Amino acid sequence: MKEVTLKIPDKKFRFFMELVKQLGIEVAEDMEIPEEHKAIVRERIKNANPEDMIPWEEARKQFKFKK
């Protein structure tokens, strides 16, 4: 299954959602993050060493992207 992310201007959002509804497209509006997942992230943040962190721009350069 493919996933698509769209940025809709605030003033067009109601129109867009009505169009989606008319077309019968399924929308996951309110995704709940399980408390267990939140606890894992909080623990990782608590144990993180700021000296090990690098800016995203620098980290991105270390990735190898498929073409």
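The above is record 1. Record 2 follows with the same two-line structure.
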Amino acid sequence: MIAADGEGASKLLECTVSGAKDVPTAKIVAKSVICSSLLKAAMFGADANWGRVLCAIGYSGADVDIEKIDVAFSSAKGTVSVCKQGSGIDFSEEKAKEILLEKEIGIEIQLNAGTAKAVAWGCDLTYDYVKINGDYRS
């Protein structure tokens, strides 16, 4: 509830990382993705930009094999796979947009390296979020 109630947020994001070699790796990847400003902006714009997910995983510092990673986005409207084995795959942009326009979005990452799992929560990065947090002094 805290993540969904961020100032100006319009969407709750839940990043689930599965198939990690250990729990610390799963946590690092989930946290890096959910904290990525580029990913948060893409979710605000309902853009199924899987490259931003892989980018966030890359700068997480986690020891993962990029060529094994699968990525999907999900919501109450369904699930769309967008990346298999570290590469983009054909998917319906229309279906992806329908999924990403929902208020709760899942970012599903499969590392295909083990059995460990972790989940992290955050919110999208909206115009209002930036305005609210840039307009006051603390």
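The chain is about 35% helix and 30% strand.
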